[in-house]
Specification:
Strand order of the largest sheet: 3-4-2-1-5-6-7
Helix content: 25-40%
Number of helices: 16
CATH class of the domain at 300-453: Alpha Beta
Structural class: alpha/beta
Largest sheet: 7 strands, mixed
Number of strands: 19
CATH topology of the domain at 300-453: Rossmann fold
Strand content: 15-25%
Low-confidence stretches: none
Shape: elongated
Mean pLDDT: 95
CATH architecture of the domain at 300-453: 3-Layer(aba) Sandwich
Distance between the termini: 32 Å
Length: 455
């Protein structure tokens, strides 16, 4: 696994001069960090080689006619050539004593019986020679902490503490584009492909021991080794990492689509759901929820109980949040006499503020009022978490409201924010995100995040 995720040298077999080809995209991802521009693109710091018998140099990288012609040791080979040539390329990797292989090429078990037979032969060859194999039919992988983009993904997202392991490479590409828009950060993104070698359990076991991985998200259609998968999630849970799973192929139509997509039968949803939850993971129903929940775990501590509080400058948003809390079984803690006394004596409260949970600060609340309320509420011992909602009024100071929330991290209790709006709250939302405070555009999402943190 180390040589897949932390290689010192990489070769692209099938590097191309055609800028519309996969082989070109992979080489550019390594040499420049991405194909489409991103402020987070950084070149791979290790050694990069290219195999193309018809070129001398591509993107400044010397080309070789075969991997066997390279004199240096190679940790990782990324193969992107027509399927009929892949087996021979793998044999040459074995001869070269390559330690890990990513097969991008499609046309194997997902294609036909002959493709499945070749895939099995490649799998056995790698297993026999202790080579870690990712794919085939994979987008590749990114280890953003190590500036490794061994994929043909379109661009590179910010570096964070969330891992995304997916059985759909195309889904990963779309998620990356979304992440750039939302400033959503990832530690690693891995496309499993057909899983002829390593699978989801291998990566779960690896990231369980990685102190920088806080949330591990998975999109899966099949589970390769049920018992091992369960134990891997349990290991992650015991080490303080939350595993969140989105399962594809939960309907008859989805099962058929999954089979043609990866060449494997989708695993039974009820069985997977029970195993994930019993091992301490979470099953979600949508892509959005997958990353909403992961964002909370990657940024905030877990709650020590299920008592939460809501602070808002908009009554309607507070009412909705109270409804959602009750539906999900979160307790709205009663504000203590001591807390009310502190609020009253702060000199910051409006005469008509609610004096109850949800704590409605009234629409003209300035940052000083938010800060006084947040501090008083979080001091209350039996309040385990907090949701802060800001609605935009003419006097609202979003950026300094955000700072009031950020300073409250000193209480070491989970906080989720709902800075509702768009254009005029954007700067504040970026500030919150950059300071590890998860913000959501809907109170329901924030309540679900706090619910997950309060297990």
């Amino acid at each position: 696994m180390k040589y897949l995720l932390e290689p010192q040298s990489v070769v692209v077999i099938g590097a191309s001069r055609d800028n519309n080809s996969v082989g070109y995209g992979i080489l550019k991802g390594l040499t420049q960090g991405c194909v489409y521009p991103s402020p987070y693109c950084k070149a791979f710091p290790g050694k990069i080689y290219a195999v193309n018998p018809n070129a001398e140099e591509i993107l400044g990288v010397k080309c070789y006619s075969s991997i066997t012609k390279i004199s240096d040791n190679i940790d990782l080979a990324v193969i992107s050539i027509p399927a009929k040539f892949v087996l021979q390329a793998v044999k040459e990797c074995v001869e070269k004593k390559v330690k890990a292989i990513i097969i991008i090429s499609a046309g194997f078990a997902e294609f036909n019986a002959k493709g499945k037979e070749t895939q099995n032969e490649i799998s056995e060859l790698c297993k026999k020679n202790n080579i870690s194999l990712l794919g085939p039919n994979s987008l590749g992988l990114m280890n953003l902490e190590k500036n490794l983009n061994a994929s043909f993904a379109l661009s590179t997202p910010p570096v964070g503490k969330t891992v995304f392991i997916t059985q759909s490479g195309a889904l990963a590409d779309s998620v990356i584009d979304w992440a750039l828009q939302e400033s959503y950060a990832f530690k690693s993104i891995i496309s499993l492909g057909n899983k002829a070698g390593v699978n989801e359990s291998d990566f779960l076991e690896w990231f369980a021991d990685d102190s920088n991985a806080k949330a591990i998200t998975l999109y899966l259609e099949t589970v390769s080794e049920g018992r091992r998968f369960f134990n891997a999630i349990k290991k992650c849970s015991l080490k303080g990492k939350k595993v969140i799973v989105l399962k594809g192929g939960t309907s008859i139509s989805g099962l058929k689509a999954a089979s043609s997509h990866t060449g494997a039968l989708a695993s039974d949803y009820a069985v997977i759901k029970a195993a994930v939850e019993q091992a301490g993971g979470i099953i979600v129903e949508t892509i959005e929820e997958l990353f909403d929940i992961a964002k909370a775990f990657s940024m905030q501590p877990k709650a020590k109980g299920r008592n939460t509080a809501i602070i808002t400058n908009g009554g309607g948003a507070g009412v909705l949040s109270a409804d959602y809390c009750e539906k999900l079984g979160l307790n709205l803690a009663e504000l203590s006499v001591k807390t009310i006394k502190e609020l009253d004596s702060s000199g910051k409260m409006h005469p008509a503020y609610s004096k109850r949970n949800p704590l409605d600060l009234v629409g003209d609340a300035l940052p000083e009022r938010f800060e006084a309320a947040i501090n008083a509420v979080l001091k209350q011992e039996n309040i385990h978490s907090l949701i802060v909602i800001q609605t935009l009024q003419t006097m609202t100071d979003s950026v300094n409201d955000a700072w009031a929330v950020i300073k409250a991290k000193k209480f070491k209790k989970p906080i989720a924010t709902v800075f509702m709006g768009g254009k005029y709250s954007k700067e504040a939302v970026i500030l919150l995100t950059n300071n590890d405070v998860p913000n959501y555009n809907d109170p329901l999402k924030a309540v679900k995040a706090i619910d997950a943190l309060s297990e």
